[in-house]
Amino acid sequence: xxxxxxxxxxxxxxxxxxxxxxxxxxxxxxxxxxxxxxxxxxxxxxxxxxxxxxxxxxxxxxxxxxxxxxxxxxxxxxxxxxxxxxxxxxxxx
Amino acid sequence: xxxxxxxxxxxxxxxxxxxxxxxxxxxxxxxxxxxxxxxxxxxxxxxxxxxxxxxxxxxxxxxxxxxxxxxxxxxxxxxxxxxxxxxxxxxxxxxxxxxxxxxxxxxxxxxxxxxxxxxxxxxxxxxxxxxxxxxxxxxxxxxxxxxxxxxxxxxxxxxxxxxxxxxxxxxxxxxxxxxxxxxxxxxxxxxxxxxxxxxxxxxxxxxxxxxxxxxxxxxxxxxxxxxxxxxxxxxxxxxxxxxxxxxxxxxxxxxxxxxxxxxxxxxxxxxxxxxxxxxxxxxxxxxxxxxxxxxxxxxxxxxxxxxxxxxxxxxxxxxxxxxxxxxxxxxxxxxxxxxxxxxxxxxxxxxxxxxxxxxxxxxxxxxxxxxxxxxxxxxxxxxxxxxxxxxxxxxxxxxxxxxxxxxxxxxxxxxxxxxxxxxxxxxxxxxxxxxxxxxxxxxxxxxxxxxxxxxxxxxxxxxxxxxxxxxxxxxxxxxxxxxxxxxxxxxxxxxxxxxxxxxxxxxxxxxxxxxxxxxxxxxxxxxxxxxxxxxxxxxxxxxxxxxxxxxxxxxxxxxxxxxxxxxxxxxxxxxxxxxxxxxxxxxxxxxxxxxxxxxxxxxxxxxxxxxxxxxxxxxxxxxxxxxxxxxxxxxxxxxxxxxxxxxxxxxxxxxxxxxxxxxxxxxxxxxxxxxxxxxxxxxxxxxxxxxxxxxxxxxxxxxxxxxxxxxxxx
Lengths: 93, 714
Hints:
The complex is a heterodimer.
Chain A: E1 7-15, H1 20-30, E2 37-47, H2 49-64, E3 69-72, H3 76-84
Parallel strand pairs in A: 1-2, 2-3
Helix pairs in contact in A: 1-2
Chain B: H1 5-34, H2 39-58, H3 62-80, H4 87-108, H5 116-129, H6 139-149, E1 156-163, H7 175-185, E2 187-194, E3 212-219, H8 223-229, E4 238-243, H9 248-256, H10 264-271, H11 276-293, H12 300-306, H13 312-332, H14 340-360, H15 366-387, E5 389-391, H16 393-397, H17 399-410, E6 414-419, E7 424-426, H18 427-448, H19 452-457, E8 464-473, E9 476-483, H20 490-500, H21 511-516, H22 539-548, E10 552-558, E11 562-570, E12 575-583, E13 586-591, E14 595-600, E15 610-613, E16 616-622, H23 623-626, E17 638-644, E18 647-653, E19 655-663, E20 677-682, E21 688-692, H24 694-713
Parallel strand pairs in B: 6-8, 13-21, 16-18
Antiparallel strand pairs in B: 1-3, 1-4, 2-3, 5-7, 8-9, 9-11, 10-11, 12-13, 12-19, 14-17, 15-16, 17-18, 20-21
């Protein structure tokens, strides 16, 4: 649908309050000028509310720029948390 | 069962009788507790239970039969001497009497079957009686209890709104871990995340919590337990736990089926929809609001709805329950038991009246016959009023139970002494005074009488005494509630009053003035809110209720010796001794007990609205101006001097028309908010006279005077 390609960002380790500032920075700076984001969560072992917030924020920003935002390959535990917030992953769509 | 009229009538009779029997049962049990070996009492109690069972059977009320059967069996063993009376036994049986009473009231309200809550309560009570049953006789009990007893904690659906404090993440409180924990006490059926609070990207602090969660939880745990999950974050977070929407009906039903209660709060807590903690918080908000705005407290239900603690339909149901309670109580006053001799006397008088009336038609001695008619009319009226009079003792004796239960709860030993139970008063009044009295009794037990150890330290006997005394005094009835407790603490009351801004700091008050402060709204010296009092329903409500009955209340106290609260009430609400006055074409009645004297208004211009009465300044109110009555004042005006709480005020009128006894007719709903007028009456001439309510009249006036005087000074 978009002419430009989705930019792929891979997160790994923990997506928690410890890394939230860093993750926010990475995701938000990756957004402008891209054709949307595909966030690869395969390496994420742990997620908490702070991490969840960052993803939700990024999704909102992407939407405000009319860019697609996809999450891929979360581990089951992470996927369950994402589902709480209504964040679906690309494979399910 | 067809509910045709005959049946209903019979059922009504059954209900009336059953109420008496339950009362006998309760009285007897209390008596047994005091004198465990009183054979006659054992018989009475047994017979009461037996008769209850028998009559219940006549009406096919299976649940009542089953329940009373067990009670009867236990009492039977007592009668046979197989079982001794112990405090434990009495404590197990008393709630059974309550339960039977509740089921009877259910019948009176048209419910032939017990509801789930009652059935469960019944099963619980029977289980408590199990140890007292002879072997093998409990079968019927378990049989009856089975349907309700099996499932102790049905799962309920809750909706949790969790808005965690902004710092929760930094404090290591991750909302997600709470959600995970919730799964351990129930089934989390749905979660939705609300990210609306997320700020713009550049302002978003990754370490601040912005998310809120809506959770649907299915759990058998009571609300307190769910609440406790959030114990550590409660302070800065907004945690709301309400029943899920689709369960509202279930709560509404449960509340409808609950035992009677006057307090919405109790109903709500009892239904499990509100926890004690939430109720305490709501009461605190209520008091704060009232103190801040200086107005009447907002109803507690409104606060609960406003703060999202309870959904409105549930509060409405609880309010309805409360209203029903009050209604069923006022319905009680629609039937009345009368001593047959009094009725005969009245009928006899009416017969004489008819004869006297017919003899006025005869020419000879018409004047004499007329006099006779007048005398008889007067007597008929007197004896008609006497029909409504009941001895107050029945009401006072009801407090024996209260004193016992509260004493046990507070670990205080209290004996109740009732005197003057023969004093009679209007039945309607008796019923309306019983709630204020109950409050006073609880207050005395809770705050007045000290714990046994403290009493002994002060050289008193460990057992406290609560006295209820009633007597007639100059056309009114006086009811005293006195205790031999610690008395009122003058300094603490004064300090509290200053703190609340009721009294200016440094004001010099007489002792009586200080003690009267306890009747001010929102004034409780109780430092801790206990189950019994200090819950915001204070002495101000008692005073309001008493004043509404045209009565007065005063307090007498001595430090360390005790406190006596004295309520003075008119004997009846239906009749008033009045003083008729005229202003222009209008007539007014001043209650005679308020009038101290009448004087002529001194002629000449009077600067301010006050006059010289034997060297004292007497402020007065010109009724003509107050009520905007057109026309010129009479050339010579009179002043009726009334006294209200020690303050004298004059009422300026055109004419003094004399004393009369009048029947009060209440004002219509339209005028219910009218102050200064308490009712109306119809005069012999057919005209209407309004009855002045002296209290508000004087209070209103002195308030206006204060304002007027304050202005030029400012």
